[in-house]
Every structure is written in structure tokens, then in C-alpha cells.
Amino acid sequence: MTAPTAIQTKGLTKDYGAGRGLFDLDLDVAEGEIFGYLGPNGAGKTTTIRLLMGLVHASRGSATVFGLDAMRQSVDVKRLVGYMPGELPQFGGLRGRDIAGHFAALRGAVDQGRVKEICERLDLDLGLKFREYSTGNKRKLGILLAFMHKPRLLVLDEPTSGLDPLNQQEFYKLVREAKAGGATVFLSSHVLSEVEHVCERVGIIRHGRLVEVSRLEDLHEMRVRRIEVEFAGDAQPQLLAALPGIENLESNHHRLTFTLRGSFEPVADALAGHHVVNLVSHEPNLEEVFLAYYADQPEEAKA
Amino acid sequence: MIRWMAWRLHRRGLIGFGAGGFLISFFYGLAFLSAAGKTRAEQAAFGHSVNLVAKQFAFLIPVPVHPETLGGYEQYKWLSGAIVMMMLWAGLAGVGVGRGDEDRGLTEQWLAAGLFRTRLLLARSGAFGLVLVIACLASVAGISAVAPLVQQDPNVAGELGKAASMAAGLFACFAIALLISQLPAERSTATAFGIGALVLLLVINGIADTIGAAAWIGVVSPFHWMERTSSAAPGGTFDLGATAGLAAGALALLAATVPIFRSRDVGSGLLTWGRRTGAAVRVASRNPLLRLPSTEGLWEQRTGLLVWTASTLLLGALMVSVTRSMVDALFSDPIIAAAFLHASPGPVYASLLGFVWFGIALLLLAGYAVVQVSRWAAQDQEGRVEMLLSAPVSRSRVVVERALEFAFASLLIVLGGYAGVAAKLPASGLNLDGGHVFTASLLLWPFALAFGGLGVAVASRWPRIAVPLLAGFAAVEYFLGDLAPLFRLPDWVANLSVFHLYGNPVAGGAWATPALVMTLVFAAGFAVALVLMHQRDVAGA
User: Fold this and answer.
1) Among A179, A21, A26, A151, which residue's Cα sits nearest to residue B390?
2) How many CB pairs lie under 8 A apart between chains A and B?
3) Interface pTM, i.e. ipTM
4) Which of B268, B287, B383 comes nearest A98 by C-beta?
5) What pLDDT, in 10s, does the model give residues A91-107?
């Protein structure tokens, strides 16, 4: 049985002209899922989020959140959503407690205990004026505003940028707790390690088009691996040179190093019967997968 | 690079006031032709009547020099009205350089790029000075263009003297606002104090011009020194000392600003208050004023709003206090008294108070509307509207809350003005009808609402250009009200200007129709704002 859908887009397009914007986005995010939305700067992540939040009008296509139309029923949608923008606006001379109090009043039913808990976990002082906050503290305030009302859906636009590692870890815990509490999380990022920490599925967007949606483990299977094989005798590069997916093959006395794209099975078959004394496969992080994926895109696919 | 950036940041002012300077001079030139006639005799008669009328209002505007000539009339009109618009521009530019750049993060970026604070301040100020000179020269071009049409000598040398005096005086206004903006950390507070100080200096000059015993206080006002040049009129004088003094004063203010800017932290004011010490706060505020966006807006601008209200209250009280002295001074000349009674057959004190106080109050409220729209526009561009719409708040509600916020704030300022007038009225010896004073004061509210309605509409759809649009509209409205009688335009055209439409209710003039029309303008602006806000994309920061 499949989980109900939290976010669904069909052919969602926002065309800013000159090839900029978001094009024909078909996406389903299941309820209770943590979905990572990856892409470089200017790929269309923030545009997608603004479409989901009903802030910008779609050129065509549709977007629904928990079955509600993101634009026509945007007020109902936002009752269910906690939103953290990529950049928090200037609140000038307002103090943190005023900003939190204002948004708590607009949302209603915000527990002061929850505010206190988040502030303590992030070490956020609400007594300071907004202009006195450091970049990191502004991000913490953004996290508080997104999480304090325990929303059903969290829409987070590059949430950890500017946070120190300790607070990043605390943020990941908050995300996992939200999921454990039944919330759905839509997290956009160009920091791939962030997605690796918490996400279950990942969508990759580039030049306004969704190019891949995979489970995190599937994405790893698409990986590019750097492999070192050490032979008892001299290395024999001809064993592997003709195999599919082998790149950058180098031989050095007893050792072969190469990059492998795709399945390891043909390599294992080729090495069978040869005296291999050591084999090391360097697991790529998502960063390498990401870069490899992009590096492999032909120019016409980018358009 | 900084010089280019500084120049570019003033481009809208350059376009607006450059074109405005040209058009104002051009249309006043055409108005001269229409009102003064073509023959020498007609022009002499016209000049005589302008002289008589102007002498009645010598407390606010300089006495004209040769108003029977194109140059004399045009200089008189500039110093009696257009200069106030230019003053507001200079004041807002000063606050923008002193505080707006910091709010937008530009100052931080420039300083991070290795720019010295002194150089930054001088580059920004120099760019404005250059823009100001161009705008003033545009007025020379305007009068030069119209002169052949009205068969008059353009008197270019004299016009250049007038432009130099205006540029120096307005640069001093800029420097005053720039210096004041260094004191508070909040932009809205800096705007209120900066513009408030300039309005006060305008009023001080008026008092100094009228009451002999108070003439000495005029020396602190740049308008006093600007009025000493009348070179655009044939036989007028260019006061080199006054103009050089204005320029030197402006440079001295700039020099005083530099060490303040260098010593304070970016993002802070020289004066700080309300800095919290003690344990960290971990709870959200329960302040009931934060429950609605409109009351939150009032809470956020409470200092600025207090300054606006207090300034209006004090100005109202001051104007009532000096009205009788002004009238007595004017009526000591039987010719002026006769001319006044002919022009304003109603009660003398009421007519004069209508001009003295309510004329200023109209400009103040139009200025407040521009400031408020500037605040909305900044919030929109900084992402505040995006953040607000991320809460369960509809776009319609954003517009409604803005309208409510403006309505309440403007009502507070109007009531402040009324309180000041009412407090001084019994002891003033003016014997005015209390009901008329109350009606005239209250009618200021729909006047402000009319501007607010238009401001809500433009800020809802075009936040980036909302301020120049509304400021331009206010200028057009003001000059329409001023030029309509000169061009002998029909009443319905003159009444397209809300300044004209307001009339003179303190002297018993009509109030119901103007109130209705201005309220309808507010309602229409509000309705348009609702439609526009729903159509647009919201993408801040």
C-alpha cells in the first residue's frame, strides 16, 4: 500500500523567458517522507518552492499539497506548512521574541514550551534585535519559525547554510524528529552531504528540469567508484581495458587503478582466476555522484 | 566603481527631478503667458496683484522680485512651492545614503571590498550633489525653452545664479538629513527626524520672515539663505556670500558626519537605546499588538510614528500661536489688508490659518504617505511579504492590513495636529468656530487616505518603483492645484488635485463632497490593490 501524497506536481512550469525558470515538473512526495531537492544555484529549486507556497503563479501545470491546490487554496496549504526561505528577510529593529510572537500569533496554537525547547537546543537568544543577529542566528530564527507549530509539511530552502556543524547536527535531529512525528519534509539544497544526512529520496534538478528522482541508495548504485586492484604479479591492464564502464585506467607495477561506472560484475568476472592480493573500492559521496551525473549530461539535455 | 554605483543609485531621482525641474519651469512659463497676458500693461497689472497676494503670505514664502517678468515670476513660484518637493527629495536621499544603504547591506559590501568609510560617504554625497546640480540646471533649460514662446528674455545668467543657490541650499538639506540619520539605528526613525528637522527649518524661516522680533532665528534655516538670491528676476541679485555660505555649511555638516560614520558600528546608530543585557530570552512575545500584521506594523514604527505625531502636534500649536501676530503684521498695511479681504472675503483669521497650518499639514500628510509606501516597498523587496505569506495569511489580508495600518497611523497624526491646534486656540485670540476647526482637521484624514489608497495600489504591484510613482503623483497633484487657476482650467480639472479639492474648510468651505471624493479615491485604490496583489508574483530577498 502506497503512502498518501503530500506534494504532487504535474507539468508544473514557471517560464521566466530566456530559458530561465522551471519546466514540466512531475513530482510526487509521499506523506511522511524526507525528500531532498538537489541542484546547483539557479537550477530552479527556489522557484519550485515558491510555486508550492503559492507565492508565484505557474505558467502552466498544477501543484497540490495534501490534495489542496497550491495557489487557489494557498491559505489552507500554509496552515499545514512550516517554511524556511533561503534567505530570511530583514526584520530590522524587531527583537527575536517579537518576530516569533508575531508569527506564532498568525499561525495560532503555538506552544511556548516548544519555542523554548527549540531555542535551547539551538542556543538562540530571542532577546536580541534582528539586526544584532549573526548570519547563523538568523538561520536559527528561521528554523524556529518553521518548526515551532509542528507543521505537517516542512518546506526548507537550503536550511543549514550559515549554521555551524554543531547546530547542523541539531537541525538534522529536529528533521528526523519531525519525520518520526509523521511530518513530511521537502528540503532543497546544493550541499549534498546535508541531503545524505537525512533524506530518503532525492530529486536532482538542473536548468529548470528534473533530471532524476531516486532513493538515496539507488543513487549510490548509480555511483562512480574509484577502484584499486593489487596483483601478486605484474598488473595486466588489458584484462579490464575493453570492459564497459572502465575509465581512467592506470597501471603501476602490481597495481591497477581505474574509475568504474555501473555494475562491478564484469570486473569481477575478468579478475577471476588472477591472483588478486588486494582490492579497494572508494565509496563516493553524493557530491561525487552529483558531479559525475552532471558531467555526463550532453549539452542538448541541458537545454 | 563606487562613483559609478553611487551615481546609479540616484538614477531615479535624476530622471524624476531632472524631468520635473524642466517641466515645472516650462509650465510656470506657460502659466505666466496665460495669466499675465502678452502686453506690458497686462503683465504689470498681473505683477502688481501677485505682489499683493505674496505679501500676505510672506511668513511662508519670499516676497517676489519683479513678478511681472517671466524670470521673476518663475523664481517666485519655485521658492514658494517646488522647493518643498525638492527639499523632501534631498531629505529622503540623505536618509537613504545614511541609513538605507546599510539596511540593504550595500554599506557592508562596499566596506568589505576595502573602501574607506570617508571615501564611501563622500562618493555617495558627491553623486547626489551632481544629480542635484543637473536637476537644478534642468529648470534653467525649462525656462530657456519657454522664454521665446512668451516673448521674454530667458536671462540665462540670472537663472544659473538661481540654480546655484537652489543646489547649494538643497545640498545643505541633504547634509542635514544625512547627519541626523547617523543618530538612530532605525531607518523609519531617521526618516521622521530628518524630514521633521527640514520642515521645522522651513517653518522657522517663515516665522523669521514675518515676526520682526524673531528675525534672528532665520539664520539657521537654509531657506533663509536661498531666499537672498533673486537673480532670475531682472534687477534681482545673486547673493554670492549666501550661496557660498550654504555650500560651506553643507560641507561642514558633511565633515561632521564623517567622524560619526567612522566611529559607529555599521547597522547601529550613534545613539543606542533599549540594548538588552541579562539572561537569554527563550519565549515568544505575547504582546497583543503583534497579533495582526497591521498592529505589528504600528508597533514596529512606534518611534517614528510618535515623532510624526508629536511634530504635527507642535507645529499645529506653533502655527496657531503665531497666526494672530502674522495677521496683525499684514493688516498694518491698509493696501494689503484691502487686497486680502478682496481675495478672501471670509473670516480673516480662519482663512489665514487655513493657509498657514492646513497647507503645511497637507504637505506633511502627503510626505507621510510617501514614507509609508517606501516602508512597504522596502519590506516587499527584502522578503517580508514573502515571509508573511508563508503563514496562513491571504494576499487580500496583506492589502487590508496595510490599509488599516495606514488609516490608523494617519488618523493618529491628524488627531495630533488637531490636539495641538485645539490646545492653543482658546488663548490665541483668533475666535474661530471650533466646529470648523475640527471639521478641517478631520478632513485631513480622507486627504491622507486618498494618498494612502494610491500608495497601497502601487506598492501592491510595483514595489520597486512605488516611491517615485507616488512621489511623482503627489508632485503632479500639487502643481495641478497650483497651475489650474493660472491656466483658468475648469473647476472639475482643478479638483483632480486633492490639494485643491481639500479647499479651505476652516473658513467654512465645503467639506462633505471633498470628504466623499477622497474616501472614494481611497476605496478605489484599495480595490485596485486587491486585484493587483493577487495577480503578481511575490519573490523577495
Assistant:
1) A151
2) 137
3) 0.81
4) B287
5) 878 899 999 999 999 99
